[in-house]
Amino acid sequence: MTDDFNRYQTTELPPGYTQLAWHRGFGRQIGPLFEKREDGVLMRAFRVEEYHTNGMSNAHGGMMMTFADMAWGAAVEKDDDTWWVTVRLMCDFLSGASLGSFVEGKGVIVGRQDDIFTVEGRIWSGDKLLMRGTGIFKVIPRREEGKPFVRTQAST
Question: What is the pLDDT at residue 1?
Fold first, then answer.
């Protein structure tokens, strides 16, 4: 990732979107990422930058799956303190997102058993459906920053 702007970048966002405050780890490497809450639904987004692209100047499939994971998993978030992990992610690639495209996604919970949620998701750019699929996500207890996750009977 580079901090230099290219000719496709812009700081303008569609109404309601704000930058996701993810400034460390993997999210920092693939960002900036955006989100908005609309009628209780959390949507995520990103603009396809040059460092997201494959050899055809479309968003790389790995970036699309990473984004699907984040956008669909967000469906289980009750608030900023909800932590979750991905159990399974199944994606159907339907179309490409070209350099400069604003890509949006969201998931809808379709099943739940205890702390395991099944989510159906969609990823799109404008009127074009790019990806659809299903994710299974597990809500986990939040841990203090810097401390390892310790398994308990409830977390196994």
Answer: 44
* Among candidate residues 38, 34, 36, the one with its CA nearest the CA of residue 22: 34
Domain ranges of the chain: 18-140
Distance separating alpha carbons of residues 71 and 49, to the nearest angstrom: 18
Virtual CA dihedral for 37, 19, 28, 86, nearest 10 degrees? 10
How many other CB atoms sit within 10 Å of the CB of residue 123?
29
Whole-angstrom Cα distance, residue 92 to residue 153? 36
**3-class DSSP assignment, residue 53:** strand
pLDDT surpasses 90 at 149: no
Q: Which residue is it, tokens 């569609």?
A: 14
Record the tokens describing residue 57, joined without a space.
């100047």
Q: What pTM was computed for the model?
A: 0.82
- As given in the structure block, the two tokens for residue 24 are 């460390």
* Residues counted in the chain: 156
- Give the separation between CA 130 and CA 127, rounded to whole angstroms: 9
CATH number of this structure's domain 18-140, picked from the four choices 3.40.50.620, 3.90.180.10, 3.90.1140.10, 3.10.129.10: 3.10.129.10
